Amino acid sequence: xxxxxxxEEIPYCPDSCELFNRIKDLPAAAFFDSAxxxxxxxxxxxxxxxxxxxxxxxxxxxAGEEQCKTYFGEMxxxxxxxxxxxxxxxxxxxxxxGILGYIDYDAGSGLNKLPPHSLANTTGxxxxxxxxxxxxxxxxxxxxxxxxxxxxxxxxxxxxxALLSRLSRPVALAGSFFRLLGSFQSNLTDAAYxxxxxxxKDYITAGDCYQVNLAQRFSAVFEGDPWSAYKxxxxxxxxxxxxxxxxxxxxxxISLSPERFISLHGQHVEASPIKGTSPxxxxxxxxxxxxxxxxxxxxxxxxxxxxxDLLRNDLGRSCVPxxxxxxxxxxxxxxxxxxxxxxxxxxxLRPERSAWELLRDSFPGGSITGAPKRRAMxxxxxxxxxxxxxxxxxxxYVSADGRMDSNIAIRTLLCQEGNIHCxxxxxxxxxxxxxxxxxxxxxxxxxxxxxxxxxxx
Length: 457
Known about the structure:
- It is a single chain.
- The chain has 457 residues and is an alpha+beta fold.
- Helix content is 30%, strand content 29%.
- The protein has a single domain, classed as Anthranilate synthase (4-Layer Sandwich), CATH 3.60.120.10.
- The protein has 11 helices and 22 strands.
- Strands 1, 2, 3, 6, 7, 8, 9, 10, 11, 12, 18, 21 and 22 form a 13-stranded antiparallel sheet that branches. Strands 13, 14, 15, 16 and 17 form a 5-stranded antiparallel sheet that branches. It has a 4-stranded antiparallel sheet with strand order 5-4-19-20, with no helix packed on it.
- Strand 6 (136-141) and strand 7 form a beta hairpin.
- Helix 6 packs across helix 11 (434-456).
């Protein structure tokens, strides 16, 4: 007989930011946010903090192939040994304690047999993986309008009572602010972007690859509380796979991602890559035309299909043969600043595999590398001036009961060592035009940059 979870219902709060305010001062506080009430696509929010002091297996930022494979194997073993006797909750909960955090894009270098990206001349460092083992969480269900504190059996009744007391107390927020100390600066001039673009086109013409995602990084110095920045951005650019993770020394990851990487529920695997983007317009007629043109774009549909094929191959490493299906192809999804084309691929995980092997064999997501994945990643490492760090990595959790979900960390900002970084990228194919691709990198993140710059003026 497995160990049962402790569930205690608490008052539902329509905006989970109010609840997170009550725990965000605790160590390693994290908020996985479906962006209610701004977004209508998500259902659950996850709030947690104060992970175990016990050290998890570590993934060095410069890990090679064998180190990476060993790491995911050790994480699978850790999860199995610590949580193997946990009974799933009677009600549907996405996370009941377990492993939560993020994995840097650069951790994918070792998994795909690339040398690690040079970390010279960059502020901050890739952490490999930033994951913690949590014993409790608050789950907000916006469909049923219910909220519950769920705790593993290891959490004492005294500690649960202290958490319930904390969650019931309003928090004074006076004095919280966030301010840039200068405008955002890119690590690529338009001339440098054009030069990198032309090299990619040469590689495509030579048959090295079909598509490469090229990104630029925008950076500024900041002071104040990154949580204030998150709330400002969330109100204007809500997305269903958003997240806020506190880091040491006033650092944080701010993600407003619209894109799921991979989810696992029971044995059901699902991935939802985004490929194809068009900016929104304030004029309704122009906006409708932009959406229609995106849906009809042969170029964007071809890009999307390339990534669907890549992900079918990635999932095929872990799924039952013959179980992989494309459930939706070229679906239009609209967000505050852009329209996207989104496809959905599903499969059934093989019985001997866990979420960790599934992540290992699919990371990083193909929608933000290009195709074929390994060669595209080599070209990215050659042409982008700095490591991507959390950008295009994944904010993810693997619940104690084995359920997993993860995003692609696009529309994501990193606050670290007094600097804030924001990346914008796009896929380049044979018929891409450099100026339109360059413009797209701004279309995706310009709203975020403008909000933070305006609030600091």
